[in-house]
Write a structure and sequence with these properties.
With about 450 residues, this protein is of the alpha/beta class. Helices cover about 35% and strands about 15% of the residues. It has a domain of about 325 residues: Amidase signature (AS) domain (Amidase signature (AS) enzymes, Alpha-Beta Complex), CATH 3.90.1300.10.
Length: about 450
């Protein structure tokens, strides 16, 4: 209890319940941490002026024994791709008018308000979330709390940097090709990309049905708790799954005894940094020790990079085409480059990619008849220097994220959990992929791993 900023949401709520912690004191501590650390890390592009007022209201509810919902008084941040009523949602772009109007909450924002969460502010993103690191023309460079000269990844880099640095225990991220799992791997956090449609989203991302919304946390239990709120229904999302009235915390501690786990070090084609590969391979023994049946097995598909590029680049072209020509000089040059490639994609190319995407999804459905989970490295590399889209030897962010984007195409639940550190002290993520719609299994396996190797925060300097 000595460091209020290090407590999980579950710990905070227990403290509120016992009247041992104050939502006002916790929020004040988090805001002070933001004031201290955000000038270095650049995780927030907007900090709320109403957070303490929300915390005071929460405290009165707790004192009256009438908390509102599941997250009353818990500080949480919102990625700046998601609408937040009364605040500009600039999506990391100079092309968006901050004057708005800003009259709507995205479903995730609305549910958090309804459950009493204290909204801290908006976290940084690359322009329109287009790449796997967090920097851009509007907000500049966001940095990794473990090593400020390294990137936290992206596109939910601000969200992950905030949680890892103690600037709020919970953050909402989005994931269109790895954008929750990438920064969680680089910053040593737990992040869940739920099954597509599990968390309602509105308006639909420009990048379409590869884009998911999910939690970034410092514990698996916090993610399950947060999913209870984020997964509540919202009629505005035409793609949303039918609401499943369940508590995602139920069964978290059932363990992994007799689960059939396929471990794929490279999916059969990826080139992985040897140090990262060794750390991940060593982590697999934890599942074996816990009673799972682990077998090295590739899922058997060829690299779907071409399929993903067709989806991603053509969406980028559509996005840039909607920006007035007079403002395009304000756009991130890398986004303009992929949009130029996307403009050459034909309707036939898109339809072909959609058919191949369906075949990939069917193949993974068949794979999961034999294996409960697929486990891989989250990323092919550890965090690299800020100001770069890719490390030496790679081109474009897709080249160093070979394990994340395939499962946006298949819409499966997938999570990253920290599994070790490089010799230079940078976190490495373990990637857990479950059958479509079985988010509970991914959470359960992650919780089992976490019980053997707890998540820890970086030292605050």
């Amino acid at each position: 209890m000595n460091d209020l900023c290090a407590l999980t949401a579950v710990e905070l709520l227990e403290g509120y319940r016992k009247h041992e912690l104050s939502p006002v004191e916790v929020t004040r501590a988090v805001l002070e941490r933001i004031e201290q650390r955000n000038p270095v890390l650049n995780a927030f592009c907007l900090v709320s002026e109403q957070a303490l007022d929300q915390a005071r209201q929460s405290e009165q509810r707790w004192l009256a024994g009438q908390p509102r919902g599941l997250l009353d008084g818990v500080p949480v941040s919102i990625k700046d791709l998601l609408l937040t009523k009364g605040w500009p949602t600039r999506r990391g772009s100079k092309t968006i008018d901050p004057m708005g109007p800003w009259d709507d909450d995205a479903p995730a924002t609305a549910r958090l308000r309804e459950h009493g969460a204290v909204l801290l502010g908006k976290t940084t993103t690359p322009e329109f979330g287009w790449k796997g690191v967090t920097d851009g023309p509007l907000t500049g460079i966001t940095r990794n709390p473990w090593h400020p000269q390294k990137t936290p990844g992206g596109s939910s880099g601000g969200a992950a940097a905030a949680v890892a640095a103690g600037m709020g225990p919970l953050a909402v991220g989005t994931d269109g090709g790895g954008s929750i799992r990438i920064p969680c791997s680089f910053t040593g956090l737990f992040g869940l990309k739920p099954s597509f449609g599990r968390v309602p989203a509105w308006p639909l991302s420009t990048f379409g049905t590869v884009a998911h919304v999910g939690p970034i946390t410092r514990s698996v239990a916090d993610a399950a708790l947060m999913l209870n709120v984020l997964s509540l229904p919202d009629a505005r999302d035409w793609h949303a799954l039918p609401f499943e009235a369940r508590d995602w915390r139920t069964g978290l501690d059932r363990g992994v005894v007799d689960l059939r786990i396929a471990y794929s070090p490279d999916l059969g084609y990826a080139k992985v940094d040897p140090e990262v590969a060794a750390i991940v391979k060593d982590a697999l023994r934890i599942f074996t020790d816990l009673g799972a049946q682990v077998e090295e097995k590739n899922p058997g598909f060829e690299s779907p990079e071409g399929i993903f590029r067709t989806h991603w680049f053509s969406a980028a072209a559509f996005l840039v085409n909607g920006i007035p020509a007079a403002k395009r000089s304000l756009v991130d040059r890398g986004l303009l480059e992929i949009a130029e490639h996307g403009a050459k994609v034909s309707a036939a190319d898109v339809l072909d990619a959609q058919m191949k995407r369906g075949a990939l999804g069917a193949q993974m459905n068949l794979f999961h008849r034999d294996y409960d989970l697929l486990v891989t490295p989250t990323l092919a590399v550890a965090a690299f220097d800020v100001g770069r889209e890719f490390p030496e030897g790679k081109t474009r962010w897709i080249d160093w994220t070979p394990f994340s984007f395939p499962f946006n195409l298949t819409q499966q639940p997938a999570a990253s959990i920290p599994c070790g550190f490089t010799k230079s002290g940078l976190p490495v993520g373990l990637h857990l992929v479950g059958p479509k719609y079985d988010d509970a299994l991914v959470l359960r396996a992650a919780r089992a791993f976490e019980s053997a190797r707890p998540i820890r925060m970086p030292a605050i300097k």
